[in-house]
Design goal:
Elements: H1 34-39, H2 80-89, E1 92-93, E2 100-102, E3 133-136, E4 141-162, E5 174-180, E6 186-193, E7 204-211, H3 212-215, E8 226-236, E9 243-255, E10 261-262, E11 283-288, H4 301-308, E12 309-311, E13 317-320, E14 324-328, H5 345-356, H6 361-375, E15 383-389, H7 412-415, H8 417-442, E16 447-454, H9 465-477, E17 482-485, E18 504-507, H10 519-531, E19 534-538, H11 547-563, H12 565-568, E20 571-574, H13 579-585, H14 589-602, E21 616-620, E22 623-624, E23 629-632, E24 636-637, E25 639-643, E26 653-658, E27 661-663, E28 669-670, E29 676-685, E30 689-699, H15 702-714, H16 722-737, H17 742-761, H18 767-781, E31 790-792, E32 816-817, E33 825-843, E34 848-856, E35 863-864, E36 873-874, E37 879-899, E38 906-913, E39 928-932, E40 937-941, E41 951-957, E42 963-970, E43 973-977
Parallel strand pairs: 8-10, 11-14, 11-20, 14-15, 15-16, 16-17, 17-18, 18-19, 19-20, 23-30
Antiparallel strand pairs: 1-9, 2-4, 3-9, 4-7, 4-8, 4-9, 5-6, 5-8, 12-13, 21-22, 21-25, 24-28, 26-27, 26-29, 29-30, 31-33, 32-38, 33-37, 33-38, 34-35, 34-36, 34-37, 39-40, 40-43, 41-42
Protein name: F5/8 type C domain-containing protein
Biased composition (Polar residues): 78-87
Pfam family, one: FIMAH
Length: 979
């Protein structure tokens, strides 16, 4: 989960939501994103990948969450049940043998011949059973049946398959069922949430059912038990990344119209419109005022003004901006989360004291509104305010005493369901009373408290979830206030929001945070319309520095303009902590333009912007980049760019990532100790962006290594003169054979490696110089595993960016990451049996505590490379190197024994090397003598391997073996003449 930019108020169901996108209603910039810290990708202000979603990856279930439902089957999981019911009531399956229409075709790997849902062949608990129809990614799927004429419909069932996490297949979160007379106007029968839930386990199935005799008819305020209609539509929501498999759909009923069958009134899907339900708020701006790093939770008047008013380039207000402000916080000073039911009474008091202090967040909002009102000649203007209600949760046993009767216990397993609910109600009532008292005491001149915001982002999966929400809304309504809610994109039972008494809801698309296609925005709009909600617009400070995130922001604006949200819908706005302020005060024309467009959007005047990305010249070390390139690793890398045909509007912009980290134009990067492949990702953007990936290879050879040795000598990185002289001896010999005799080159490279290790063991070389030169050794020796086929027993969230091959692609910024289980393996196929003696693992923070390394020639019989301690290795953080006696094998396997964190195993690179053989170099190896007979001169090039001066014994003989000269000199390189 992308903890640095988003944090869910509650975790839906433990295992599967590890793959879900991040929530958009709650920000926690004070907690770094795991992926951003460890991989430098998509966290807030750090830019995370899924993940990534930034999501990026997920967050383990919180200890305070309800347990996962591990039921093997949901009600009606047996397909024969519906048939038995039909026989008893003289109903038949009206869908049997019918064809139907998909809104989006199933995936080609699990196709539908047009009758799989109605052929009576029920899928087995096996993902490879051809009866299953598979869908992945994209918008919610709709399947429509034409019954031929109007019939009486009593029951609809849809069967789904789950195999998670083994094969990343989940049942839908929600399934909706509709009927129609004309195929255009649809009446709602029911919304249904999964009862199986999303916990891991063996393959299972679930049947989603509307039974009119049990459920009635949801839409149209009718008391009917049967629906009279010609067309039936089943809609199931899609997980943003994982598979969903469906088989039979049964429509039980009878011909004609029977007693009790009714025509279901049609309802057009629509956004929640601003009005009484929203207390008149059209645009609700989220301001996070909990405990955040760098004071970002403290709202000064100066920070607030560009949020509530549109300021010109001089910072002066010229119009109002957001007409509603939601104050909410996640983290307490102790680091506990108000949204996850972790905080106690003392922390609730802390938040209230902070918010309502004489110079606190609410007073600063009042002063900002007063100042803007005066400048706009509207001194009586009042900003509408919504304030959060923390989640009491269901885990705390010692919340605190609110009424003198003792500390409250919210844990049902300890005090029972009724008492726990009563105690949670007491805590919420205490909060509401405190808010009301403090508000009245402050007597804010330019603020109006209009509502309270329910912080949990879904209806709790526990049995009492709806009761908690309903109890809360009743208490808020007793204060004549509205209840606001912003469920995340995978919120459980979100369609119940009106049923539990909430007044205004804005559904989170979560598209901004990555891992989804742009059609996610249309899907979110459709889901919001289906449930009668508004939508949330999501962005954060990453759009200031990253063109990809800026494009996503523009995608939100474009989508709102095309779906009608901008014109007709209630909107909430997630901005991280400070994006609106930073856009408003920015002197960068392209960022200022985003603030202007946001202002237009809020006022309904924004027009779609989708201009294509311009071209740009990328220059590396003075050379225009036209593709991948190589440079010596002794060079300092410097990258610049210039936009072609820039129109001067300020919209066009270039951003770059080097090895997964943001790169500022012109920044020098020292490549010493960084040989090999580097990934440069350049994004050029206007309204749309174009991203190009280049490979820059920092090349090592004998000359670059010698240059680095000499540079380290100048920097006093050696404590003796012998050390660098000896290393240079090897490098001279390497250069002699470079490009002509690979075996000899390899021999002296390995000798260099042995000498380098000896210098390190003798502490005659600094760690910095040793590490840099060692990287060059590894680069020239070559990773036997690079670009070879890699597989693993699991991949975190089935995410492509975390696939096994990412650990053998040669890039330091990509990685493999496993599922969150100890017994996990990763292996690489070297293609043929090869000799090696070293494995190098570049760990991400999610490393092993213990593991094994195994080898095999047949991928079946495995042997530990470490012979003692049953082969178990204790992992070391960072770049870990494991040496062992040379082995010869085709397959190399990492076998996890125990994880070191709550996450899985993850490493950037997995290297396999053959380093032995360096001791084969003899002490005087490489000596050469050149005779100039005419001049009577002999030059001896004696490269003694220990680097020190040596006695050179010289004997010159003629062709018949007669000794002409015999002498002895002490020198490394000596002119010998007149001897």
């Amino acid at each position: 989960m992308n903890l640095n930019c988003k944090k869910w108020g509650s975790v839906l169901i433990a295992a599967a939501l590890l793959t879900a996108p991040v929530s958009a209603a709650q920000a926690d910039p004070g907690v770094p994103d795991k992926n951003a810290v460890e991989a430098g990708d998509a966290g807030q202000q750090a830019g995370n990948d899924p993940g990534s979603l930034q999501a990026e990856p997920g967050e383990p279930a919180d200890a305070g969450q309800p347990p996962v439902d591990q039921a093997d089957q949901a009600p009606d999981a047996n397909p024969s049940t519906a048939a038995t019911d039909a026989e008893q009531t003289n109903l038949r399956n009206l869908a049997a043998g019918l064809s139907y229409e998909w809104s989006e075709a199933p995936d080609a790997s699990h196709p539908d011949d047009g009758h799989k849902l109605t052929d009576g062949k029920y899928g087995k608990l096996d993902m490879n059973d051809p009866a299953w129809v598979g869908h992945v990614r994209g918008k919610a799927r709709e399947v429509v049946f034409d019954l031929g004429d109007e019939k009486s419909i009593a029951k609809i069932s849809a069967h789904f398959f789950q195999d998670y996490p083994t094969n990343s297949i989940l049942v839908p979160l929600e399934v909706s069922m509709y009927v129609s007379d004309d195929k255009e106007n649809w009446g709602l029968l029911s919304h249904n949430a999964t009862q199986l839930l999303w916990g891991g386990g063996p393959p299972r199935q679930e049947t989603f059912t509307w039974d009119g005799s049990r459920d009635g008819i949801k839409g149209g305020n009718t008391d009917g038990k049967l629906a009279y209609a010609r067309y039936v539509k089943v809609i199931f929501t899609m997980h943003q990344e994982l598979w969903e498999y469906i088989d039979e759909i049964e429509i039980m009923g009878t011909d004609g119209k029977v007693d009790g069958a009714v025509t279901v009134p049609a309802e057009q899907p629509h956004f929640l419109e601003p009005g009484e339900a929203t207390a008149g708020i059209r645009n609700l701006n989220l301001l996070y005022n909990g405990q955040y790093a760098n004071g970002l939770g403290d709202w000064s008047k100066e920070r607030i003004i560009p949020n509530i008013s549109y300021v010109n380039k001089d910072g002066e207000p010229t119009d109002w901006l957001f007409d509603g402000v939601l104050y909410l916080g996640l983290a307490s000073p102790a680091g506990r989360d108000f949204g996850l039911g972790q905080t106690n009474l003392g922390e609730w008091k802390w938040y209230l004291d902070k918010t309502f202090a004489p110079s606190g967040d609410m007073q600063n909002l009042n002063e900002a509104t007063k100042e803007v009102g005066a400048k706009l000649n509207q001194p009586d203007h009042k900003e509408k305010v919504v304030l959060m209600i923390p989640n009491p949760g269901g885990s705390l046993t010692d919340f605190g005493d609110v009424d003198g009767t003792g500390s409250l216990n919210f844990n049902e397993s300890v005090v029972g369901k009724a008492k726990a609910l009563e105690n949670r109600g007491k805590a919420i009532q205490w909060w509401l009373d405190q808010v009301q008292q403090r508000w009245q005491a402050a007597n804010y001149s330019n603020l109006e408290l209009v509502g309270m915001y329910w912080l949990p982002e879904q209806i709790d999966v526990g049995e009492s979830g709806p009761d908690d929400a309903r109890m809360m809304t009743e208490k808020v309504h007793a204060m004549n206030l509205k209840v606001f809610w912003i469920p995340h994109s995978l919120a459980y039972k979100m369609y119940m929001w009106k049923d539990v008494g909430m007044d205004a809801a804005a559904y989170q698309p979560n598209y901004f945070f990555g891992g989804m296609d742009v059609d996610r925005l249309e899907d979110a709009a459709n889901n919001a319309k289906r449930y009668g909600m508004g939508n949330e617009v999501e962005f954060d400070d990453r759009m200031l520095t990253d063109n990809v995130f800026r494009e996503r922001f523009i995608d939100y604006l474009n989508s709102g303009a095309t779906t009608g949200l901008m014109q007709n819908g209630f909107r909430a706005y997630y901005q991280g902590n400070n994006a609106v302020y930073n856009l408003g005060v920015s002197k960068d024309p392209s960022l200022r333009l985003m603030y202007d467009w946001l202002y237009q959007y809020l006022n309904g005047t924004y027009v779609v912007h989708d201009s294509p990305a311009p071209e740009a010249d990328i220059v590396i070390n003075g050379q225009t980049l036209n593709g991948d390139m190589e440079i010596p690793d002794t060079e300092t890398l410097q990258i610049t760019w210039k936009i072609k045909d820039d129109d001067g509007s300020g919209l066009a912009k270039v951003t770059a990532m080097l090895d997964g980290n943001p790169y500022t134009q012109g920044t020098p990067i020292n490549l010493a100790g960084k040989p090999g492949k580097h990934q440069l990702v350049v994004t050029v953007a206007a309204a749309k962006s174009k991203t190009t990936t280049y490979i820059i290879r920092a090349v090592s050879n004998a000359d670059t290594m010698k240059a680095n040795v000499n540079r380290f000598v100048e920097q006093n990185q050696f404590t003796t003169a012998e050390g660098p002289r000896s290393l240079n001896n090897y490098l001279e010999l390497m250069k002699r054979y470079e490009g002509s005799d690979a075996a000899q080159f390899d021999k002296y490279l390995k000798g260099f490696n042995v000498k380098l290790d000896q210098l390190s063991a003798d502490h005659t070389i600094s760690d910095t110089a040793y590490a840099a030169l060692k990287e060059e050794v590894y680069s020239l020796i070559g990773n036997l595993a690079e670009s070879k086929p890699a597989t693993a027993s699991s991949v975190e969230g089935s995410l492509e960016r975390l696939a096994p091959e990412k650990a053998v692609d040669g890039f330091s910024s990509t990685r493999w990451s496993s599922g969150y289980v100890d017994d996990t393996w990763f292996q690489v196929d070297l293609g043929e049996s090869k000799e090696f003696d070293t494995v190098r693992i570049d760990w991400e923070n999610a490393r092993a505590k213990t593991y094994k390394l195994l080898v095999s020639d047949d991928n079946q019989h495995w042997t530990n490379v470490i012979k003692d301690n049953d082969g178990i290795i204790t992992a070391q953080a960072g770049k870990e190197t494991v040496h062992f006696d040379p082995v010869k094998a085709r397959y190399v396997k990492f076998q996890g024994v125990q994880r070191n964190t709550e996450y899985g195993y993850s490493f950037y690179e997995f290297g396999v090397y053959h380093l032995s053989g360096g001791n084969a170099v003899t002490a005087i190896d490489g000596t050469r003598a050149v005779a100039d007979v005419a001049a009577g001169k002999l030059t001896i090039d004696g490269l003694v391997m220990n680097g020190g001066p040596s006695k050179v014994n010289l004997k010159i003989v003629d062709s018949k073996g007669k000794v002409l000269i015999k002498a002895r000199r002490q020198a490394r390189k000596q002119d010998v003449s007149n001897l």
